[in-house]
Each structure stands twice: as structure tokens, then as C-alpha cells.
Amino acid sequence: MVSIELWSFAVFLASVFAGLLTGITLTPKYKGTIRAAVWAVGAALGYGLAFVSYSINLYNDVVGILGLSALMCIIAQFLYKDSWSTKLAIALMACLIANVSTFMLCGTTDTVLGARFGLIKESPYETANLIFFIAIKLVVYVALSVLYVRCLRKTFHRTIEAVGGKMLVFIPALVISVVGFYIINLVSNSVGIYPDSLWFFPLYLTVCVIFVVEFWMIFYSIDQSAKTMKTTAELNIATNIQKSMLPCIFPAFPERKEFDVFATMDPAKEVGGDFYDFFMVDDSHLAIVVADVSGKGVPAALFMVIGKTLIKDHTQPGRNLGEVFTEVNNLLCESNSEGLFITAFEGVLDLVTGEFCFVNAGHEIPFLCKKGKTFEPHKIKAGFVLAGMEGIRYQCGSMQMEVGDRIFQYTDGVTEATNKNNELYGMGRLTKILAENSELEPTELLPVIKADIDRFVGAAPQFDDITMLCLDYKARMEG
Question: Is 93 exposed, middle or buried (CB count within 10 Å of its CB: 0-12, 13-18, 19+)?
């Protein structure tokens, strides 16, 4: 009976060690006296379960390994404030550390020294050897606890913080590890691989290496997940910032009866390089801008912000748009270490006379719809792209718009939308869909075009930003 009591206590110590690692890692929910009382009750229950189990079968570790691990995981759920997945993951990790260190360090040490000191005569379950085994465990567990506090606890805390306490995805691997360790122990006992066997140390060394690799993979995956979550959060912020920079409230100028303008931008990634803008230059002049930054993602979006700001700041009443783009181009070239460039189209409508002045820096040609007719491409000469070369001089063009005329401008993401057969949407389809829906208001026209593009593309991924803008000249402004 004495050997059963001592063996139960020896096995029980591994759970105490695991509980200690859990307690010094998680965030307390109750004051120390309450936690101590609950752990004491749990310890008594755990020792009692181990004693009953080993009284029935001294060689069956199902309660000693799995049962006590489950009990510790349950207690951790009640005593600490972290998320349930964090508490379960940390408890399982602690159980695995305790079990592996017990077999690798305590069991082998006892086998070597116990036999040398004459403590093992017939069986390792003799009283003298069990006391020695318990002493070894205490030394090993204390040493490992100190190492854990100094080396590993901060890593666990950083990991938990990095994933926001959402450890659910990592629990299956930990559960399989704890159960798998028990199965390995069960199989090794059934074939006679005990601590005094030549095969014991190689077997459990292999198991230990496997678990170390698994720990590394788990932490690596957590680290990568955390980086991904951080990047996603940052991209979401960037997306919201970009959306807030583009006019997105429609009708844009509800008090103005002379015109109607509507625009959309669908980025290929979380943030895009396309942009549009429309603003009153003065009380009688409306400016529209549609542009496309080379590249995708965050670099293009940042360059987009610079380009959009410069164009708007330099568009002043009475100023020639060619001069605006010439100055903007030189400024962009000064701070373009990434070698990006912008294709851009800007137009300014005189609401009194209907004169529409424009400048095109390598951008798509607009579509013009005269009153009572259909949209047709308005062929204009495109200048060189912005930020491509310093010193380029841009020329301003003009056309006369009458009441009822409309202009549609877009980026190449429209015509270069690609389906699964690598076919482009193309100018032909765009011209056709515009001609068929020329009577629609701008707010109705753009969704129709986008729906047609989506039907054409199907399930193929979107490779480029899709931006469209439509301006409707509704009435002359009183001079």
C-alpha cells in the first residue's frame, strides 16, 4: 500500500507542476487565497483519483496522464480571466511539458542513479526508490519552473497578445499531443520498454524532439497568424482612409441643379491605386479627375494620395490645366523613389458657358454622349504619364458641352477586366453597353456597367482596380 501511495503522489506531482506553469502564465480572476483554496481542493481530488486508479491497476496511466490533465484544464477555466481557448491551450501545453520532462529527465535519471545507489532491487516501485524518484521530480520541476519564468513565459504572453487570445485553432494539435503521449506511453509499457530498457531513452528522445518541433511549428504558425492579423487590420485601416479620401456621398452637390456627378472605385486589393475626384474650383467651375497609379496595394495607394492632393491643390480658377499637370508632374518626379507613375485625366466644366477644358496624361479616352444620342468614344490626344519624366509640358484641350450632354471616364481596369479564358472585356463591349444604356442617369449607369463586367469576368479574380465616373450637364448656370 505504501508503494501505491508514493507512486500516486509521484504521478500527481507532474500535474502540480503543470498547474504551476498554468497559474504563472494566465491572468488571475480571483485573489490569491481563493485560487489557492480551489487548487488545494483540485489537488486533493486529483491525488484521490490517482490513488484509486493505481490501486486498481498500478500500470494503467489513463487517469494519471489524461484524467489529471483534464482536471487541471477544468480548474484553469474557472480561476483565470483569459479567453477559454487561451486557458485551455496554456493548460494543455503545461501538461505536455510536465509529461515529457517527467519521462525524459526524471524517469531516466531515476533508472540510472536508483540502480547505482542500490535503491532498485526487484522493482522501481520499491519505497526507497519512489522516495528518490519524488526527490528527483522536485528538483527537475523547480529548475524547469525557473527556466520557464525566465525564458518562456514572456514568449507565451506575446503569443497570446499577438492573436488577441484567440487560440482555438491551436487546441486540436495540443489535444492530440497530450493524448498521443499517453498512447506512446501505453504502447511502450505493453512491449516492455521501461526506463531501465536500452530502447527507453532513444524512444522518448525521439518523442521529445517531435514535440519540440511541434511546439516550434505551433508558435511559428501563431506568429505568422499574428502578423497576418496585424497586416489585415492595417490594410482595413488603409482601406477606410482611402475610401474617406474619395468623394463617396451622393448626390454630391444636392443644392446644384446644373449638373449631376457619380463615381465608383472597386479596388483589386484591400487598397487600390485608382482614384477619382470632383470638386468646385469656384462657384461656376466643376473639376473632375480620374487617375490610375501603376502597381497595386499600399505603395500605389500612398502615391495615389500624393497625386490626388497635388492635382486638387494646383487646380485654381482660371489656371490652364496643362500648366497644372506640368507642375504636378515635376513635383511627383522629385519624390518618386519607387519609380511609380500616374495616368490621369482632369476636366473642368464651365457651368455658365458649357466649355469643358481637359488635360490627359496617358489616360483612357473618355466617352461623350450628346443630348438625345448615345455614348461614343471622344478621341483626344493623350500626353505622357505623370511622374514618368521631369520637364514634360502638357497641353490643355477643350470642347463645347450643351445641356443634356454627358461624359463618362474610367480606368483601364474596365477594358482590361479578364475572364477565365484570358479574354479582355475590351473597348467594344464597353462601347456597346454604354450605347445600350445612354438614357440612364449616372447613378444608374455605373452599376449597370459594373454588373456587365462581373458577368463577363465570372469567377476569374480581379487583377486591376475598376474606377468609373459620369458627369451629366443638366442646366446652364445663370451668369
Answer: buried
Q: What are phi and psi of 192, to 5 degrees?
A: 85, 20
Instruction: Give the residue from 158, 218, 208 showing the smallest Cα distance to 184.
Output: 208
C-alpha cell at 305: 494620395
Beta bridge partners of 182: none
Strand arrangement of the beta sheet that strand 397-400 belongs to? 274-282, 285-293, 342-350, 355-361, 397-400
Radius of gyration of the chain (CA): 36
DSSP per residue, 178-220: HHHHHHHHHHHHHTT--TTSTTHHHHHHHHHHHHHHHHHHHHH
**Which of the 8 DSSP states describes residue 170?**
G
**Of residues 88 and 244, more confidently modeled:** 88
Tell me phi and psi for residue 278, to 5 degrees.
-150, 140
Residues 6+ apart with CB under 8 A from 386: 291, 307, 325, 328, 329, 332, 341, 342, 343, 344, 361, 362
Enter the pTM of the model.
Answer: 0.60
What pLDDT was estimated at residue 363? 95
**Predicted confidence (pLDDT) per residue in 409-419, tens digit:** 999 999 999 99
